[in-house]
Amino acid sequence: MAKQEAAVSEREIFSLSGPLYLTAVDWKNPHHRRSVAASLVRGVYILERDRQENRLGHQAQASPWWNFFHFQLSRMLIDDVDYSVFGAIYEYHSSAFDCNAPKFVIAFRGTIKKPDTKSRDLKLDLQCISNRLHQSSRFQLSMQAIQNVISLVGAANIWLAGHSLGSAIALLAGKNMTKMGYPMETYLFNPPFPSAPIERINNEKVKHGIRIASSVVKAGFAVAKKGQNQRSQKDDSFYALSEWVPGLFVNPADHICSEYIGYFEHRKKMEKIGGSKIERLATQYSIGSMISGVFGGDSETWHLLPSANLTINLSHCPDFKRAHGIHQWWDPNFLGQSELHLFR
After folding, report:
1. H or E element: which one contains 186?
2. Tens of pLDDT along 245-301?
3. Statement: residue 97 has pLDDT above 60
4. Res 218: pLDDT
5. pLDDT value for 223
6. Rounded (10°) CA dihedral 25, 28, 30, 34
7. Number of C-alpha atoms within 13 angstroms, CB side, residue 325?
8. CA 104, CA 124: separation in Å to the nearest integer?
9. What is the pLDDT of residue 269?
10. What separation, in Å, do the N-terminal and C-terminal C-alpha atoms of the chain show?
11. What residues have CB less than 8 Å from 9, skipping those under 6 apart?
12. What's the whole-model pTM score?
């Protein structure tokens, strides 16, 4: 028993790595809201690690990640293939009522590279890349859980939150719920952006040139589709999503999510040089979705967004592991830059 306790990573223990400074949460404070959402996502990771390590009772490490903020675990979301915990529904319970606090938070973890979960999680990662995440049973289970909670309390008091693979699930679910008329407050930590890593090119002129060329090609594809009398539903659905403004939290040193920086920055640059009409068409497509559309597949890309509140972590990260990690988002010394991007 002592060996099992000694094997627990410090980063799994709330009292050693959680945001202990948040003894009184100001629900109007964006830093506090972000930190709580990230901690609840971390709680899902630890629920699954507790399950894998058979940590029960006082050995279990998960509950402080939500109890500290006066949440209770309402339900765990269990994958129907590997039976892992991939999500959780938390309900807020506090003697001090605050209308700015969420009533429920539905959170999703990312990939865990342990024997119990590695195979299933990596398969879902590949489905993200191939634009087929919506076909997975894990995503369908997520949608059912979200709709069940909304049927009880409505969408206004519910947050969605996820990290990495979990943020992909939360993003896609948020899109779907918005199309159904239920836009939800959403926190997406290190969300995957399946694309060539253009943002990692150091030469700004080359990088900008590649993006402009890509925009012209994608806009041409959009015009060609309209010329074939296929107008779109896609245009309409993309515009319909513009009122939903999820929070994106990305790190420039994380190649999995850093393309979101270039994606939104390029839209601003195209507007400045008079190319906004081109970009309004191009921003709805990826090169991969174009190829899929040519061969009769789904040309709608799950990760592209019309609007977002983009927060970039400007703090130095020594390695990819930390740049992609969840802990950075509640760091008391967090140095970030936020910008609102609205699709008009």
Report:
1. strand 185-189
2. 999 999 999 999 999 999 999 888 878 787 666 666 667 766 555 555 544 555 467
3. yes
4. 61
5. 66
6. 50
7. 14
8. 26
9. 82
10. 59
11. none
12. 0.89
In angstroms, the CA 139 to CA 87 distance is 11
Q: Smallest Cα–Cα separation from 241: which of 293, 193, 302?
A: 302
Say how many C-beta atoms besides its own lie within 10 A of residue 106's C-beta. 30
Pairing state between β 308-313 and 247-250? parallel
Helices and strands counted in the chain (H then E): 13, 8
Q: What is the pLDDT, as a whole number, of residue 298?
A: 53
Express each pLDDT in 124-174 by its tens digit. 999 999 889 999 999 999 999 999 999 998 888 999 999 999 999 999 999
pLDDT above 70 covers a percentage of the chain that reads 81
Residue in this structure with the two tokens 């050693």, named with its chain if needed: 16
Structure tokens at 43: 């709680």
β-bridge pairing 85-92 and 104-108: antiparallel
**Confidence at residue 333, expressed as pLDDT on a 0 to 100 scale:** 94
CA 244 – CA 21 distance, rounded (Å): 31
Which strands form 104-108's sheet, in the order they lie side by side? Answer: 71-78, 85-92, 104-108, 158-163, 185-189, 247-250, 308-313, 336-341
Q: Chain-wide mean pLDDT for the chain?
A: 87
State the Cα angle at 54 between 50 and 59, rounded to 5°. Answer: 65
Q: Which residues contact 326 (CB under 8 A, 6 or more apart)?
A: 38, 41, 42, 45, 110, 163, 189, 190
DSSP reduced 3-state for 311: strand
In degrees and rounded to multiples of 5, residue 160 shows phi and psi of: -105, 145
Count of CA atoms in the C-beta half-sphere (13 A) of 307: 20
Report long-range pairs for 47-52 (Cβ below 8 Å, ≥24 apart). Answer: 47/73, 47/76, 47/85, 47/88, 48/84, 48/85, 48/86, 48/109, 48/112, 48/117, 49/12, 49/112, 49/114, 51/84, 51/85, 51/116, 52/114, 52/116, 52/117
